[in-house]
């Protein structure tokens, strides 16, 4: 008989299996948590590396642009004429990889792949970033609150002067001529007492050129020239030269009509107010004809930079001519308005006009001659005003008897020294008048010409021979793809601007 052995299962074996399974579940959970923590840590490292990459990129701002013009931007051309996109991408990618290596104890995660970055250019067509930089910490309340009043007064006075000349010309044409005998008698009287016509001397001075007429003696005129054909944002200049015949009423009429729009604002009054901080910036970083000493010293292709912004010509002399013409036009209308309102000045001019018209056998044109004499008096006073301003003096917008410079007696014996002007302690200086003209400029033209000077001055440095403002970068957005281990990849994005 064969014996059978009975196997009995003990309860302790079931507990062992259960504990093993429980251990595996706990370990799996811990490993999953570890992997999850590791994954998110790698993500955080990649995000940090992306941020450090773009921050490092923007930290390499162009130093001369910052030192000269207080503008933060990266030179995307590295001083060359072409935009160096490959170098910029390589710089972004290398910094990202270095930061990822440091996160893994120097072992690294392999080469990163950079998707095509998006660069924000400093000047992108609407000038927003450019303006944000140059107007930083400059209060817009610096705009003169009287600019609207100035333009209104200019318009009124210019229209009044033009209408007055028209009326006097019509009256003279309708007036009957004096008898010949009376005319001959007046000629004999004029032969006994010759009358000096100040229009001849003013015309002689003007024919020498506006610089000779409006600049004070011993004025150090800059001879600098610089072509602006190779700049990022070309802008044509404006040259002004007018022939003025103070004995021709039609010529003066046409002149007044041209002056009518010389103070017409291009951007509207609201734009003028918003643009106020730009005027402060321009006067801080650019020189002009009356600058005693530059606030920021560096090489400059032109000495009269503010005049270049206003005129846009290649030479200092042409730019100064254009600005002096605008200044002459403004001062002449304002001075003429004072003469027309002054009874004492009108009486003195009327006596001379009567003698001149009688000597010409045209007594009916006495009123027209009187107006032309007033116009030449206002013009001569304006030449003296320009000389005063260029010497560092001041001229009020609206003159009175105490601030008027040339008397009628001086006009009758006029010479070059009489126009030299004075120190002018009351009113607005040359810089103030420049600011007024800048406020009335077209916005885009003004900003483009500012960039011309920035480019050309920086190109004087040997390491930036072809620097271009069009390639300056204000911000960057980059996307990096990298392996973070165990076959997993991650895309890290970062965007930053100044």
Overall pLDDT, averaged?
Answer: 81
Order of helices and strands: HHEHEEHHHHHHHHHHHHEHEHHEE
Distance between the termini: 100 Å
Number of DSSP strands? 7
Instruction: Report the uncertain regions.
Output: 139-146, 178-192
From the helix content, strand content and strand pairing, which structural class follows?
Answer: alpha+beta
Helical fraction: 40-55%
Question: Mind explaining what this structure looks like?
Answer:
This protein has 498 residues and is α+β, with helices and mostly antiparallel strands. The protein folds into 2 domains: 12-134 and 474-497, no CATH class; 146-456, no CATH class. Helix content is 55%, strand content 7%. The protein has 18 helices and 7 strands. It has helices spanning 11-59, 63-69, 85-103, 128-134, 147-174, 180-192, 198-207, 210-214, 249-259, 268-274, 276-285, 305-311, 316-341, 343-359, 366-390, 408-412, 430-439, 443-459, and strands at residues 74-75, 113-114, 118-121, 394-395, 428-429, 472-485, 488-497. The strands form 2 sheets. Strands 1, 2, 3, 6 and 7 form a 5-stranded antiparallel beta sheet that branches. A two-stranded antiparallel sheet has the order 4-5. Strand 6 (472-485) and strand 7 (488-497) form a beta hairpin. Helix 1 (11-59) packs antiparallel against helix 3 (85-103), helix 5 (147-174) runs antiparallel to helix 15 (366-390) and helix 12 (305-311) crosses helix 13. It is rod-shaped, with a radius of gyration of 38 Å. The protein starts with 10 loop residues before the first helix and ends with a strand. 36% of the residues are buried.
């Amino acid at each position: 008989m064969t014996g059978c052995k009975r196997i009995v299962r003990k309860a302790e074996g079931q507990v062992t299996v259960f504990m093993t399974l429980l251990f595996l579940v706990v370990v799996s959970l811990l490993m999953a948590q570890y992997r999850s923590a590791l994954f998110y840590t790698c993500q955080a490292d990649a995000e940090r590396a992306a941020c450090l990459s773009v921050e490092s990129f923007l930290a390499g701002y162009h130093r001369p642009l910052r030192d000269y013009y207080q503008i933060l931007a990266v030179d995307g051309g590295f001083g060359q004429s072409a935009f160096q996109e490959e170098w910029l991408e390589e710089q972004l990618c290398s910094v990202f990889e270095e930061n990822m290596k440091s996160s893994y104890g120097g072992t690294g995660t392999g080469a990163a792949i950079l998707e095509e970055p998006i660069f924000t250019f400093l000047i992108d067509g609407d000038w927003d970033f450019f303006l944000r930089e140059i107007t930083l910490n400059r209060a817009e309340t610096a705009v003169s609150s009287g600019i609207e009043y100035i333009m209104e007064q200019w318009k009124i006075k210019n229209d009044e002067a033009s209408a007055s000349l028209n009326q006097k010309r019509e009256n003279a044409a309708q007036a009957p001529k004096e008898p010949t005998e009376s005319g001959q008698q007046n000629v004999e009287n004029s032969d006994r007492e010759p009358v000096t016509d100040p229009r001849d001397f003013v015309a002689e001075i003007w024919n020498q050129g506006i610089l000779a007429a409006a600049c004070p003696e011993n004025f150090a005129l800059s001879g600098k020239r610089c072509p602006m054909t190779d700049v990022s944002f070309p802008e044509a200049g404006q040259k002004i030269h007018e022939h003025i015949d103070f004995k021709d009423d039609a010529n003066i009429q046409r002149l007044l009509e041209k002056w009518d729009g010389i103070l017409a604002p291009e951007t509207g009054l609201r734009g003028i107010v918003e643009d106020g901080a730009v005027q402060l910036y321009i006067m801080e970083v650019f020189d002009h004809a009356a600058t005693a000493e530059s606030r920021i010293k560096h090489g400059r292709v032109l000495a009269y930079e503010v005049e270049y912004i206003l005129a846009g010509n290649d030479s200092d002399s042409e730019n100064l001519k254009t600005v002096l013409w605008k200044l002459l036009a403004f001062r002449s209308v304002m001075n003429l308005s004072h003469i027309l309102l002054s009874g004492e000045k009108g009486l003195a001019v009327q006596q001379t006009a009567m003698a001149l018209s009688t000597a010409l056998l045209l007594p009916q044109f006495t009123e027209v001659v009187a107006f032309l004499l007033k116009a030449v008096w206002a013009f001569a006073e304006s030449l003296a005003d320009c000389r005063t301003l260029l010497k560092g003096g001041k001229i009020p917008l609206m003159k009175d008897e105490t601030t008027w410079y040339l008397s009628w007696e001086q006009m009758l014996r006029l010479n070059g020294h009489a126009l030299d002007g004075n120190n002018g302690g009351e009113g607005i200086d040359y810089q103030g008048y420049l600011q007024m003209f800048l406020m009335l400029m077209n916005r885009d033209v003004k900003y483009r010409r500012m960039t011309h000077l920035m480019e050309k001055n920086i190109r004087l440095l040997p390491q930036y021979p072809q620097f271009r403002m069009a390639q300056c970068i204000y911000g960057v957005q980059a996307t990096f793809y990298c392996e973070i281990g165990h076959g997993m990849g991650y895309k890290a994005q970062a965007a930053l601007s100044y």
